[in-house]
Amino acid sequence: MQLQVLGCSGGIGAGQRTTSLLLDDRILIDAGTGVGDLSFEALLNIDHVFLTHAHMDHIACLPMLLDTAFGSRAEPVTVHATQASIDVLRRHIFNWHIWPDFAAIPDSRNPFLRFAVMEQGDRVDIPGGHITALPALHTVPAVAYALHSDDGCIVFSGDTADHAPFWEAVNQIDDLSALIIETAFADQDADLARTALHFSPGALLNALGQMQHETDVWITHLKPADHALIMQQLHDDPAQGRRFARLQPGQRLDF
Ligand SMILES: [Zn+2]
Ligand SMILES: [Zn+2]
């Protein structure tokens, strides 16, 4: 399988796109502004969207993806998310005020948008593998995802602060290929990171003590103003033997 990074920034601006990953050709993991770079043909290929949570930077392009593909696809698009996230999307986005309710058009028996509830621990089989929702800790209900192919597994944290059940779940994966984890704020904003339930470098370095794998760690969701500083603060810790790298838009991870 191949995971392509469409967006991995904590903000926008030239060259910056918010969280979205494309798994092979038909599955999106989150639907931030990175989705907007896909061609029309590539947008029509999207059958499934797995959402970590309903914050704007992770769903921004979902409404417009549906609007763009509507009428050009025979099959509906399925959005997998927790019941809490689905409730928020229904109430606040697909409510005919912000955007049409694609779960009711062209009619509610054959809608273009289908929701599928996926809670922590749930597994969905996909061609060539499966996806499992893992525990995460954020200001709204959120999950991480383990993306399993026949040859390995990539864990994507979504937005989270330190959360023991997340690490316990990661440690149970015996073929982990890579960990993609957020570090939204630099250390001088550690208080803000704690309040917003995001990682800062010091908090991540502490938390990684719970991970038993030697796997490389890819950093995502960095605030644009502090990209370089966040990576410097991660690399500066002399006790760490881990390799950190900043996830890059356009990057492809094979696993
Ligand atoms: Zn969030
Ligand atoms: Zn976010």
From TrEMBL:
Please give the CDD domains that the UniProt record associates with this protein: class_II_PDE_MBL-fold (cd07735)
**GO MF terms held by the record:** 3',5'-cyclic-AMP phosphodiesterase activity
Show the InterPro entries listed in the entry.
Answer: Metallo-B-lactamas, Pdiesterase2, RibonucZ/Hydroxyglut_hydro
A Pfam family assignment: Lactamase_B_2
- SMART domains documented for this protein: Lactamase_B
Q: Which Gene3D superfamilies match?
A: Ribonuclease Z/Hydroxyacylglutathione hydrolase-like
| All copies of domain Metallo-beta-lactamase, residue ranges | 17-203
One record GO biological process: cAMP catabolic process
Its protein name is: Ribonuclease Z
What is the protein's species of origin?
Answer: Amantichitinum ursilacus
